[in-house]
Design brief:
The chain is α/β, with parallel strands linked by helices and 342 residues long. It contains eleven helices and 15 strands. Strands 2-8-7-6-5-3-4 form a seven-stranded mixed beta sheet, sandwiched between helices. Strands 10-11-14-13 form a four-stranded antiparallel beta sheet, covered by helices on one side. Helix 3 packs across helix 9 and helix 4 packs across helix 8. The longest helix is centred in the C-terminal third of the chain and has 33 residues.
Length: 342
């Protein structure tokens, strides 16, 4: 047997939990009280039996929470699985896939896993997108992340793309709540698959719950491609609790994140990307060396070398002020090229 050439992988560092994790953009602002509210009591029968097919009860709960049409939500094992389903659908549609870089690194990996070799478009230096070129590209599917990781900007051209693009628009909205977009709505265009997650603003990354919002016919196609029991009973009940009683905590955490972001930006003199997200991307010489020094001081950050517009960048997650004060001191010590006022 000859195996295919699997020359792709996602750089997933295993750093444990003893250091300050500023590399995964987890929500570090939610209080312990929130998790006590969210944590469910699970009955023995819920552990013994499989969940309802496609976790349709949770899907209906999400639809009711957002006022979405019945049948428009597909629950997935994290946003990554939602992206994978969308790309599998793109593979069935044909005509290929395009992605706009720089963006979330897992996207290329997911595309390759389903047999797609994506065409790449790059944001201009002002982070604008050439809508004409993309709309006329002829590809069957397009991936866009907004707000974008790692440039943190809201892609203002998304609605124009939805209206003009003759194909499936895969919108990664992992950070939407930070930008004030609490309710999905672009599914109304019909060709948009909007991928959401409970891992970022909702602070439930360990549960691995995401969902896709699309017009009913598209949602049904995605459901066909999905495994019948994507998430556990525990995860489903925890997300229901979060929707029912946890949103005030999440909204406050989003506000606190914005406050700390402004505090941090006033103290860093350097070229960077920032926006309505829970991270900052900093351009700097010798980013890898600086990251290694930060690691020695107990802070884990993400190095973005090689990405368009981010040839030497560090991305760090925003954390409560007490953590950011220590981190900026460490950043100042780790890099002589970045001015940090602490």
């Amino acid at each position: 047997m000859t195996l295919p050439d699997l020359d792709f992988a996602y750089d997933e560092p295993d750093v444990g939990y003893s250091k300050v994790r500023l590399h995964f953009n987890e929500n570090l602002f939610l209080p312990e009280e929130y998790y006590k509210v969210v944590a469910p009591a699970v009955e023995s029968w819920e552990l013994r039996y499989y969940t309802d097919p496609n976790n349709k009860r949770l899907a209906a709960r999400i639809e009711a929470h957002h006022g979405l049409p019945q049948g428009s939500v597909v629950v997935t094992a994290g946003a990554d699985e939602g992206l994978r389903l969308a790309m599998q659908l793109a593979a069935h549609i044909g005509r290929g896939l395009a992605i706009v870089e720089p963006t979330y690194g897992m996207v290329r990996v997911l595309a390759r896993q389903v047999g797609l070799r994506p065409t790449v478009y790059v944001y201009r230096s002002d982070l604008r997108l050439d809508v004409d070129a993309v709309a006329k590209s002829g590809v069957g599917a397009l991936y866009v992340c907004s707000p974008n990781n790692p440039t943190a900007h809201v892609v203002k051209e998304v609605e124009e793309l939805a209206a003009r693009f003759d194909g499936l628009l895969i919108l990664d909205a992992a950070y939407a709540e930070y930008a004030g977009y609490w309710t999905p709505r672009l599914y109304e265009y019909g060709n948009v698959v909007e991928v959401r997650t409970f891992s970022k603003a909702w602070g439930l990354a360990g549960l691995r719950v995401g969902y896709v919002v699309a017009r009913r016919k598209t949602a049904e196609a995605l459901r066909v491609l999905s495994p019948p029991h994507p998430i556990s009973a525990y995860s489903a009940k925890a997300v229901e609790n979060a929707l029912e009683r946890g949103e005030p905590y999440v909204r406050r955490a989003v506000e606190e994140t914005a406050e700390v972001r402004e505090w941090v930006l006033r103290r860093i003199a350097g070229e960077l990307y920032s926006g309505p997200v829970n991270f900052v991307t900093l351009k700097m010489p010798d980013a890898e060396a600086a990251a290694a020094e930060l690691d020695k001081m107990g802070f884990v950050v993400r190095v973005l070398g090689g990405k368009p517009l981010c040839q030497s960048c560090l991305r760090f997650t925003l954390a409560p002020l007490s953590v950011m004060e220590k981190f900026l001191n460490a950043l100042k010590a780790a890099s002589k090229n970045i001015k940090v006022a602490v």
